[in-house]
Specification:
The chain is α/β, with parallel strands linked by helices. The chain has helices at residues 3-14, 19-30, 69-82, 97-100, 117-130, 202-215, 237-259, 264-268, 285-296, and strands at 34-37, 42-46, 52-56, 61-64, 87-91, 110-116, 141-143, 146-151, 154-159, 171-174, 179-181, 187-188, 221-223, 226-227, 234-235. The structure holds zinc ion (ZN) (2 copies).
Amino acid sequence: MHRRSFLQNSALTIGALSLAQQKLLTTFFDDPWKISMLTKNIGIFTERGGTIAFLLGKKEIVVVDSQFPDQSKHLIDELKKRSDKPFRLLINTHHHGDHTAGNISFKGIVDHVLAHANSLTNQKNVAIAAKNEDKQLYPDQTYTDTWCGKHAKENICLYYYGAGHTNGDSFVHFEHANIVHCGDLVFNRRHPFVDRGAGANMKSWIEVLDKGIKKFDSNTTFIYGHSGTGYEVTGKADDLKKFGDYLGSVLKFVDGEIKAGKSKDEILKATTIPGADEWKGDGIQRPLQAAYEELTAKA
Ligand SMILES: [Zn+2]
Ligand SMILES: [Zn+2]
């Protein structure tokens, strides 16, 4: 359905929606997809879900992450206008639906889908539980530590440094351009989702970010899965350091509260985290709860 006709059809019923729902609808329609080119042939696509990156080569197209089915269709349509080359490779930074649900739009048009082995396992587990395996396009290629491949004059390398946001997050490095897609290893000034059910670990996450900072350099441009209002989805290594410090602040705060005898419910009532002033907005309970569970988990 076209956006315009949807709006017309919906106009009569919009009045019946709550203010929050109206706001959500307005945000949705005021926020169409956007493409920003980072170099002549590498760009990012944002609409709804985790930031997508793409490489338009002279002979082929490579895409990193796929948002949701409608969003990936928007991306594919637009890239087809800019290039008549085939989609060779779709990379998933990790399994979450806001990064892989759009894979299905690439069915039959992309040669290969690549992700960390744990990302594939997680994607399958979630899809089986949700009974929507028919809506998935799974990776047909996986790796465990490092994967590198040549595509369109780029050397693309994936690195796995251990548990972070899940147990299957990759850094995706376009070496020549020196651009790294971090997936959800970085929530830039936004409270993160910590998927403990899929093996996330906040202490290890800090180490993963440190390894990324050491591996890449001060000229590297990083792409983030998500950012807080008013913050960019791209930046430099300092953002990774800041986010690692933020995770450390959450763990330190919750540890102190536990030691002070506070209950889980009391801890989850916090509205700010000391030392993490730039992290505002919704979702603070998620990292607090994850930190509480991690710190109180029996070894
Ligand atoms: Zn995400
Ligand atoms: Zn995620």
